[in-house]
Task: inverse folding
C-alpha cells in the first residue's frame, strides 16, 4: 500500500506494516520505500526522487538518494530540495552525476549517456552494433569503471568465452567496436589512453577457424531442392518461421536480413518490394509467381499481425516499439536444420552462394542472377526491376 504524507522520521517509525511506500505531500517526486520488518522491529527506508526526462512521455527515472543506513529523513529531504530545481529546469540528475564523476564512471554509464549515441551516429548499422554491445559487452564489463578496463579483463571476460564458443567473427567485431568506444572515451576526457589498443585475435585460433570454414561442404542444386522439400514436409512447417524463411531464401536468393526487414505491405499482388538497411524501399522488385507467390501468401497469413508492420514481427513487437524478427536467431535454427539433413554445417552467407551457383547451373541468365543477388554491374548491363527476364529466370529456377 501507498500513502501520501510529509516524510519524517516519526511518520516512518509509526507507519503500519501494510504501507510499502510514502509519497511526500510537500515535495513532488520525493518518496520513501519501506522494506520488510527486521527482528528488532525496524524497517530499511530507501529514499528516491522520481522525475521524467523529456516531458510526459519521456524517460522515467527513480533517482536513488540513499537509505536509512547512511542518512535520516531530514538529510534525504535536504538533498531532494537540491534536486528539485534542476528537475524543474529539465535537467537529468543522473546525467549530471555522470558528468561530474568522470573518474568513477562505469562502462554501462558511459555507454548509456555517450557511447550508444556515438555508435548510432558513426555507423549505418549502428542499431545492430548496439545489440552486439548489449549482448556481449555490457553484461561482462558494464559494471567495471572505465579507468579499470584493461586488455586482460576484456580477454578473460569477453574474448576468451567467445573464442571457446567458436564465435570468431563476433569476437573480432567486439574488438573493433569496443576499441572505437574506448577511443571516443579518450576523446571526451573520460580516459587518459586507449587501454586495449594492442588487443587482437590470436593468429593460431583464427587459422583454426579458417580451416573449420574450409571443412564446410557446398550444397548442390539437388541438395538445395531436397532441403526445400524437407522443410515443406516438416511437421509444423507452417508455423516454424525458420523453415518458412529457409524456403523463401532458396526460392528468391534473398538474405535473411532482407527478408526480416520486409513489411507485409511490400507484398503487393505479383510483386515483392525490397527494402535497404535503412528501412526504405530501394526500388528493386522480386516478381511473385508459382511457389514463391504461394509461400509469401502463406507468410502473410501465418506470421503477420495487426500490431506490426513487419512481415515477420519480432517478440514483444505488440507491447513495445515495432521491430522485426531477429535474423541471427533464425540463422542458427536454419543451420541446425541443414546439419540434421546433410550432416555438415553451412553458414547462411555460403548457402546463398550455393543458391547463386545452382541458378547458373540450371541455365538462369547471369544478368538475372546478378539482379537477385544484388551484384553491381555497369548500368547498360543491369536489369530494371520490371524486366520480364527476371520472372522468366525465376520460373526456370522453380522448374529446375
Result:
Amino acid at each position: 500500500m501507498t500513502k501520501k504524507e510529509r516524510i519524517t522520521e516519526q511518520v516512518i517509525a509509526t507507519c503500519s506494516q501494510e504501507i510499502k511506500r510514502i509519497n511526500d505531500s510537500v515535495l513532488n517526486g520525493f518518496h520513501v520505500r519501506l522494506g520488510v520488518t527486521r527482528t528488532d522491529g525496524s524497517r530499511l527506508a530507501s529514499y528516491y526522487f522520481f522525475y521524467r526526462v523529456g516531458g510526459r512521455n519521456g524517460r522515467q527515472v527513480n533517482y536513488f538518494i540513499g537509505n536509512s543506513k547512511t542518512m535520516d529523513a531530514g538529510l534525504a529531504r535536504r538533498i531532494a530540495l537540491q534536486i528539485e530545481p534542476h528537475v524543474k529546469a529539465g535537467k537529468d540528475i543522473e546525467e549530471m552525476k555522470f558528468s561530474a564523476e568522470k573518474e568513477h564512471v562505469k562502462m554501462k554509464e558511459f555507454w548509456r549517456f555517450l557511447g550508444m549515441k556515438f555508435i548510432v551516429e558513426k555507423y549505418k548499422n549502428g542499431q545492430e552494433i548496439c545489440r552486439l554491445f548489449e549482448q556481449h559487452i555490457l553484461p561482462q564489463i558494464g559494471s567495471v569503471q572505465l579507468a579499470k578496463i584493461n586488455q586482460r579483463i576484456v580477454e578473460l571476460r569477453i574474448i576468451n568465452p567467445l573464442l571457446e564458443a567458436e564465435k570468431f567473427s563476433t569476437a573480432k567485431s567486439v574488438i573493433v567496436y569496443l576499441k572505437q568506444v574506448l577511443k571516443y572515451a579518450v576523446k571526451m576526457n573520460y580516459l587518459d589512453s586507449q587501454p586495449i589498443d594492442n588487443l587482437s585475435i590470436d593468429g593460431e585460433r583464427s587459422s583454426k577457424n579458417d580451416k573449420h570454414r574450409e571443412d564446410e561442404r557446398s550444397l548442390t542444386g539437388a541438395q538445395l531442392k531436397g532441403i526445400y522439400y524437407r522443410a515443406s514436409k516438416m511437421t509444423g512447417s507452417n508455423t516454424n518461421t525458420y523453415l518458412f524463411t529457409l524456403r523463401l531464401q532458396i526460392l528468391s536468393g534473398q538474405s535473411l536480413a532482407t527478408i526480416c526487414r520486409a513489411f507485409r505491405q511490400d507484398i503487393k499482388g505479383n510483386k515483392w518490394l525490397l527494402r535497404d538497411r535503412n528501412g526504405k524501399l530501394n526500388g528493386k522488385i522480386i516478381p511473385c509467381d508459382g511457389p514463391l507467390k504461394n509461400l509469401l501468401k502463406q507468410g502473410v497469413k501465418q506470421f503477420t499481425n495487426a500490431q506490426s508492420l513487419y512481415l515477420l514481427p519480432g517478440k514483444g513487437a505488440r507491447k513495445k516499439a515495432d521491430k522485426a524478427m531477429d535474423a541471427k536467431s533464425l540463422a542458427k535454427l536454419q543451420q541446425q536444420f541443414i546439419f540434421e539433413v546433410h550432416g555438415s554445417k553451412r553458414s547462411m552467407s555460403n548457402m546463398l552462394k550455393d543458391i547463386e551457383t545452382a541458378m547458373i547451373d540450371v541455365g538462369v541468365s547471369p544478368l538475372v542472377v546478378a539482379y537477385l543477388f544484388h551484384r553491381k554491374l555497369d548500368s547498360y548491363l543491369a536489369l530494371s526491376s520490371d524486366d520480364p527476364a527476371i520472372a522468366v529466370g525465376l520460373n526456370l529456377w522453380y522448374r529446375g
Notes: Residues 210-214 have pLDDT under 50 and may be disordered. Strands lie at 2-4, 21-23, 30-37, 43-53, 59-67, 267-268, 271-275, 281-287.
